[in-house]
Amino acid sequence: MSVLSLPFAPLSHTGDVDGALAAADRCLHGQLRIGSQRHFYMEPQTAVATPEEGGRMNVISSCQGCDQVLWAVAEVLQLRHNQVHVSSRRVGGGFGGKVRCLEAQGMLSGV
Q1: Domain range for 78
Q2: Is 95 left (phi over 0), alpha (psi -120 to 50) or beta?
Q3: Is 38 a domain residue?
Q4: In sequence order, which residues have a C-beta less than 8 Å from that of residue 107 and are 6 or more positions away?
Q5: Domain for residue 68, yes or no?
Q6: What is the pLDDT of residues 53-78, one digit of tens each?
Q7: How many Å apart are CA 47 and CA 69, to the nearest integer?
Q8: What does the radius of gyration of the chain's CA atoms come to, in whole angstroms?
Q9: What is the pTM of this model?
Q10: 16, 36, 108, 111: which has the fewest Cβ within 10 Å?
Q11: 3-class DSSP assignment, residue 34
C-alpha cells in the first residue's frame, strides 16, 4: 500500500511552543550528552520460563546465545544442564547485541 493512499490522515499537532514555555511555572534548561551506542535494537530483552515435569525448566529467551542462558538458569536453580531447555523464537537486527547480558532475564524468569 502506498503511503499516499493510506485510509487515514497522518497525525500532526501544532502549537505555540514559545508561548507555552513562557507560561510554564518552571522551565529547565541544559544539555544532555549521550556517548556512542554500540547496539540499539527494537526487540525487548525478555525471557519466559515454564516449569516442566521432572523438575525441568523450559525457557524462551530473546537472545542469540541460548547456551549462556541455559548455564545461568541451571546454576541459579541448581539443575543439571540437561534439565534446562532454552530456545529463541526469532532474533532479528541484534547484530550481536543479544549475545551477552541476557543471562539475568533467564535467571529471573526461572526463579
Answers
A1: 47-110
A2: left
A3: no
A4: 72, 73, 75, 76
A5: yes
A6: 999 999 988 887 788 888 888 988 99
A7: 10
A8: 23
A9: 0.56
A10: 36
A11: coil
| pLDDT > 70? residue 100 | no
User: Hey, what amino acid is at 52?
Assistant: E
DSSP letter assigned to residue 64: S
Q: Identify the CATH number of the domain in which residue 64 sits.
A: 3.30.365.10
Domain count, the chain: 1
b or e along 47-57 (b: 16 or more beta carbons within 10 Å of the residue's beta carbon)? bebeeeeeeeb
Contacts of 54 (CB under 8 A, 6+ apart): 83
Q: Give domain status of residue 18, yes or no.
A: no
Helix, strand, or coil (residue 41): coil
DSSP string, 8-30: SPPP-----HHHHHHH-S-----
**Unique residue bearing C-alpha cell 493510506:** 6
